[in-house]
Amino acid sequence: MADTPLSESAAIAVIREMLSAPAPALEVGVGDDAAVFHFAGGSIILTVDSIYEGIHFTLDTCGLADIGWKAMAASVSDIAAMGGQPLCALMSVAFGAPPTEDEVRALLGGALEMSGSCNCSIIGGDICRSSSGLGVSVTVAGTPHAYGPVLRSGAREGDIIGVTGTLGDSAGGLYVLKSGHPDLRAKFPALVDAHLRPESRIPAGEILASCGASAMEDVSDGLAADLVHICQESDVGCEIYSEAIPLSGELRALANEARCDPLQWALAGGEDYELVFTAPEERFSKALSSLAEREAPATRIGVVAHASKGTRLIAPDGRAESLEGLGYDHFLK
Amino acid sequence: MADTPLSESAAIAVIREMLSAPAPALEVGVGDDAAVFHFAGGSIILTVDSIYEGIHFTLDTCGLADIGWKAMAASVSDIAAMGGQPLCALMSVAFGAPPTEDEVRALLGGALEMSGSCNCSIIGGDICRSSSGLGVSVTVAGTPHAYGPVLRSGAREGDIIGVTGTLGDSAGGLYVLKSGHPDLRAKFPALVDAHLRPESRIPAGEILASCGASAMEDVSDGLAADLVHICQESDVGCEIYSEAIPLSGELRALANEARCDPLQWALAGGEDYELVFTAPEERFSKALSSLAEREAPATRIGVVAHASKGTRLIAPDGRAESLEGLGYDHFLK
């Protein structure tokens, strides 16, 4: 009876069956008080990220499998942002109402699809009720690159700033989904996919770490906010050229049709999970070549400046605008 | 202006200041994409537990500091239930509305007080909005005892069943808080404290692991549900004597006054975070002595039986009742 609400123990039985595949280094999996895994020793990266119904997603634009995927991708992306490799994950799910077996299978199935794509095993977690709406919190443990984790604080004046992939696609996809027009959805499939099934940039992060990137972060709150984080942590400023910010053909076409500014989606949309990074000129060029060889193109978008210059977005006509306040802040409207 | 709602970045600045104390083995703390800590190698226990407003607490019975404490205690308790030691924690908080500085300080302050009491450092986490109500999810990483983690699956027929401390106090405390009577609160302070500030049984868990307990779990869903977990995982049954279940004097007095059955609070109340464990007779006696020496008394409550006997609660008149269905299930009413 896959569409009858489950008891907690029945839901755990479904989850346990879905997580029964052997995971490397796993010593104790689902069914005990906690998971136990073996680690040879060294540095461990630990991160948690959460998404909530009504804030990060609504069930009319995202399916449960998409939500499982997105929750996993958001946390895995934090490991990518340090140039690391994910090891294993815990998933904590609060259901607004007792879920059916189909719902549990969809949510966890999406998460497993995403975690499997980057060799990350889901080894445990917890489920409970929330008083309203679905909440998913994913913890990921990983290991840094042999050269050490790439931090936000390492950018130096004169470093070049780059970003992987294209930006704003996720925000464009959300615009399409919110519009509710099936025509629009059929016309812009890559944008919808970027929103519902964001890729992890684990391989790009590893290449950037091995090429000696000086600072790195994932684009989760929009390029503006995330670049401001790097500048604040590194005590530097920056100059970004608006024309250099990589936008996809689909995003430009949608913006044209919707009479929107695609740059705003790139700067403030968030959830792109691309990597914004800095590196001294020579290393930067090497990184761009290495990324291109691995079919993970990146783009030069600006330079790191002295802190006194602030964080500036330069328009084609030379006018400058501060990046601060352009990104997403959960507690501001 | 400690009572003005904060922006996300201002809230993070407060959290960062509060978490600035040096933590052992910490390599990267708050302010980057993820936390990084050093681990010498071996087994790592990883667990997550979440509490939600309206389900696990309401703000009229719990202060924010209590909620921070309880969220941390619930996850640390999973480490205790394996006989392990906590290393570090991540805290993921969803606020129903932008919090004030005082609110952030209260919540995190309670969590820090609890984590400090068991040498667990809070090294990172995330904050975001929820569409309704406060949600706190805590991940804890820890290490098992040198003899290995004590699992739920090791109970054998003939083992003795014991439990630390007294049971039902947290449920009694909740009854007092829900009543809203200040007189009742003044009369039963230990029950209220057991509900708002549950202790971690890390030291008791370690003693039990070193004495060779065969199975262990923390009492989070009520003795009935948690003992059923052990029996299911170990493929055994059990006999528990209702008169042997340890109840505090305050709980008996409250039950008398409220005309409630204190045993129901012990069996189905949950959130006691005591440890229920099994061990062969000789080891069991040794464990009880060791616990008593360390002022962590435990009580013998029954024996492990063959699976065919089921999980039975025996009344003083010899009548038996199944433990199944007596505990808390998040998805059943």
From TrEMBL, chains A, B:
Domain PurM-like N-terminal: 31-142
Residue stretches making up the PurM-like C-terminal domain: 156-310
Keyword Nucleotide-binding: yes
GO biological process: thiamine biosynthetic process; thiamine diphosphate biosynthetic process
Catalytic activity line of the entry: thiamine phosphate + ATP = thiamine diphosphate + ADP
Signal peptide coordinates: none
Superkingdom assignment: Bacteria
Residues reported to bind Mg(2+) 5: D221
Positions contributing to Mg(2+) 3 binding: D33, D78, D218
CDD domains: ThiL (cd02194)
E.C. designation(s): 2.7.4.16
Pathway this chain belongs to: Cofactor biosynthesis; thiamine diphosphate biosynthesis; thiamine diphosphate from thiamine phosphate: step 1/1
ATP-binding among keywords: yes
List of residues binding Mg(2+) 1: D49, D126
Binding site for Mg(2+) 4: D33, T47, D78
SUPFAM superfamilies the UniProt entry points to: PurM C-terminal domain-like, PurM N-terminal domain-like
Residues where ATP binds: G125, D126, R152, S220
UniProt-annotated binding residues for Mg(2+) 2: D49, D78
Binding site for substrate: H56, E271, Y328
Keywords linked to the UniProt accession: ATP-binding, Kinase, Magnesium, Metal-binding, Nucleotide-binding, Thiamine biosynthesis, Transferase
Job of this protein: Catalyzes the ATP-dependent phosphorylation of thiamine-monophosphate (TMP) to form thiamine-pyrophosphate (TPP), the active form of vitamin B1.
NCBIfam families in the cross-refs: thiL (TIGR01379)
Miscellaneous information on this protein: Reaction mechanism of ThiL seems to utilize a direct, inline transfer of the gamma-phosphate of ATP to TMP rather than a phosphorylated enzyme intermediate.
HAMAP family, alphabetized: TMP_kinase
Full protein name: Thiamine-monophosphate kinase
Name of the gene this protein is made from: thiL
